[in-house]
Amino acid sequence: MAVLTRRFDFDLENLHISLDIVANVEDLVTDPNDEDQIPYWAELWPASRGLARYIWEEVDFAGAAVLELGAGLGLPGLVAALKGGRVTLTDYKPEALELAGRNAARNGIEGVSLLLADWRDFPCTEQYDWVIGSDVLYNPRLNPYVAGILARILAPGGRLLFAHPGRKVTFEFLQGLKDSLGLREKRSTVPVTVEDPHYPFYEIDIHHLYK
């Protein structure tokens, strides 16, 4: 399916990324009653911007293997690659990965690979030093699949980095995950401003989980 896009400039201190993003997300909705057909991947969510900023300012991946869950347009993963990571962007929608790959190429970002993967049947067998995700832990029906994936693919001593806009279900899931995997946590918030006249300001919660 051809996706109509527009250009979006994302800027942080000493960083400029030019992204192709979906021009009109509503055009992609084919069946609003089928959750699998709602194009969540097509939005540049506030949490992805907050996680990208946190990574750029706070994290040095320095050759680490990084997997982004539910990458969508790929912004945090692309910034992780710029901070030295060997990044695998994953999503269950091929349109998302096509755009994420295009954005990597547009910005000359190397060290990025793409993996088409549904959490309910996740084919990845490799282990990763970091697993990251932005506003992907909102569905209680799908979160148990994520827990199983993380238990399998997180390398010994690996770290998790998740961002969300204060979702109760995400807090609860990450607390349970922290307990089950024996992880410690560093929590931060990142302010984000978006182009929405009704809800322009967000405080994005960042969870860094580690041994």
- For the residues shown, what is the average pLDDT? 95
Rounded radius of gyration (Å): 16 Å
Which percent range describes the beta-strand content? Answer: 25-35%
| Strand order across the largest sheet | 5-4-3-6-7-9-8
Mind describing the biggest β-sheet? 7 strands, mixed
Low-confidence stretches: none
Per the CATH scheme, the topology name is Rossmann fold
CATH superfamily: Vaccinia Virus protein VP39
Count all strands and give the number.
9
Topology as H/E string? EEHEHEHEEHEHEE
Specify the CATH class: Alpha Beta
Name the CATH architecture: 3-Layer(aba) Sandwich
Separation of the first and last Cα atoms: 43 Å
Number of separate helices: 5
Number of domains: 1
Helix content: 25-40%
User: What's the shape?
Assistant: globular
Question: How does the SSE layout of this entry go?
Answer:
Layout: E1 5-12, E2 15-22, H1 46-58, E3 65-68, H2 75-82, E4 86-91, H3 94-106, E5 112-116, E6 128-134, H4 143-153, E7 154-164, H5 168-181, E8 184-193, E9 201-210
Parallel strand pairs: 3-4, 3-6, 4-5, 6-7
Antiparallel strand pairs: 1-2, 7-9, 8-9
